[in-house]
Write a structure and sequence with these properties.
about 325 residues
C-alpha cells in the first residue's frame, strides 16, 4: 500500500489493518470499505473465511477483477475511438465554416457573382457560426455536463440513455457484448464460490452498470423466486441471445452451470477483443461516407458560383 501513490488507498488499507489488530475479522474489516471492494469480492472473502479457503477465494477474486478490468478497458478503448473521430470531423467542419468560407464569400462579393441557393445556405450557416461561436461552445459544454449529471443521478434518464446506446449501430454492439461478458463472468464466479442462485442474481443486479440489463436481472430474480427454471427466466427476459439461453439450459440440466457460464464469458470476451481490433475497419466506411458527403456539399456550394462566373465569361 505504501508504494501505491494514492493517499486514499493507503489510508483505507491502514484502517483495515487497524481493525484486524483490534480483533475484527478480515471480512468485517474490508466490508467497511465498499468503495474499494465490489460486493462479489466481499462475498468471496466471507466464504473463504468460513470455509478456511481464504487464499483460494482471494486468488479467484484477483483473477476475476483482472478479467473485469480487461472487459471495461476494452470497451472504453473501443468507444473512445469513434468519439474522437467524430469530434475531429466536427472540429474540421467548424473550422471551414468559421475561417475558410468567409474568405471565399468575400471574393464572391468583390466579383459580384449571383449566388445559387446551396451557396446561400452555406453562407447562412457560416454567418450563424461566426455570430454565435462562443455561445455554441458554452451551450455544448453545459449540454454535455447536464447529460452526464442526468445519467449519473437521475435513474429514468439513465434508463432512456442506456436503451438508446444499445440501439446505436457500432456502440450498441460493443455495449451489448461487454455487458454480457460482464454478467456471465460475475454469475460464474458467484456460483463457483458456493453462493446460491437467487443471492448471486441479487449481487449481479447491484453490480451491473447498464440500467436495461439491471432491470432484466431484477426480473430474472423475481421469476426465480417464484420457482421458474434458470434458463426460462433468461429466455423470458427477452434481452439475452439464444446462445446464452441454450448454454444455461445445458448447464442447468447437466449440473455444470458455472462451467457453461465461464465458457460464455470467455466467448464474449473474445468477441469484444475482436470488435476492438476491427473497430477501425468497421467505422472507416461510415466516416468516409459522412465526411465525403459533407465536404462535397460545401465544395459544391463554394465552387458553383465560380463555375457560373466562368461560364458567363466564356459566353461573352
Amino acid at each position: 500500500a505504501a508504494g501505491s501513490g494514492r493517499a486514499d488507498f493507503e489510508s483505507s488499507v491502514h484502517d483495515i489493518i487497524l481493525n484486524i489488530k483490534r480483533g475484527s475479522s478480515f471480512s468485517a474489516a474490508v466490508a467497511r470499505k465498499t468503495h474499494m471492494f465490489p460486493k462479489a469480492v466481499l462475498h468471496l472473502i466471507r466464504i473463504g473465511e468460513e470455509s478456511g479457503t481464504l487464499d483460494e477465494r482471494l486468488k479467484d477474486a484477483a483473477n476475476h477483477l483482472l478479467r473485469i478490468q480487461s472487459i471495461i478497458g476494452d470497451t472504453r478503448q473501443a468507444l473512445l475511438y469513434p468519439f474522437f473521430v467524430f469530434l475531429t470531423m466536427g472540429g474540421g467542419m467548424i473550422f471551414w465554416f468559421y475561417y475558410v468560407v468567409p474568405k471565399i464569400v468575400a471574393l464572391f462579393s468583390d466579383m459580384d457573382v449571383t449566388l445559387p441557393p446551396l451557396t446561400i445556405f452555406i453562407i447562412n450557416i457560416s454567418e450563424f457560426i461566426q455570430a454565435y461561436f462562443f455561445e455554441m461552445i458554452i451551450f455544448s459544454i453545459l449540454l454535455c455536463c447536464s447529460v452526464i449529471m442526468l445519467y449519473k443521478n437521475f435513474n429514468p434518464a439513465k434508463k432512456i440513455m442506456d436503451a438508446f446506446f444499445l440501439k446505436l449501430p457500432v456502440a450498441g454492439t460493443l455495449i451489448q457484448v461487454s455487458s454480457l461478458a460482464f454478467i456471465t463472468e460475475y454469475f460464474s464466479l458467484l456460483l463457483n464460490a458456493g453462493i446460491d442462485i437467487i443471492q448471486s442474481i441479487k449481487i449481479l443486479e447491484e453490480s451491473v452498470n447498464n440500467e436495461v440489463y439491471r432491470i432484466k436481472t431484477r426480473q430474472i430474480r423475481k421469476d426465480l423466486a417464484s420457482g421458474t427454471s434458470i434458463s426460462d427466466t433468461f429466455t423470458r427476459a427477452g434481452i439475452f441471445p439464444a446462445f446464452i439461453c441454450r448454454m444455461i439450459n445445458i448447464g442447468e440440466m447437466s449440473g455444470t452451470l458455472p462451467d457453461q457460464l465461464n465458457y460464455i464469458a470467455n466467448d464474449y470476451k473474445q468477441r469484444l477483443t475482436a470488435l476492438v481490433e476491427n473497430l477501425g475497419k468497421m467505422i472507416e466506411p461510415l466516416v468516409l461516407v459522412i465526411a465525403g458527403t459533407m465536404f462535397a456539399i460545401i465544395m459544391a456550394g463554394l465552387f458553383l458560383p465560380v463555375y457560373s462566373l466562368v461560364a458567363n465569361l466564356s459566353s461573352m
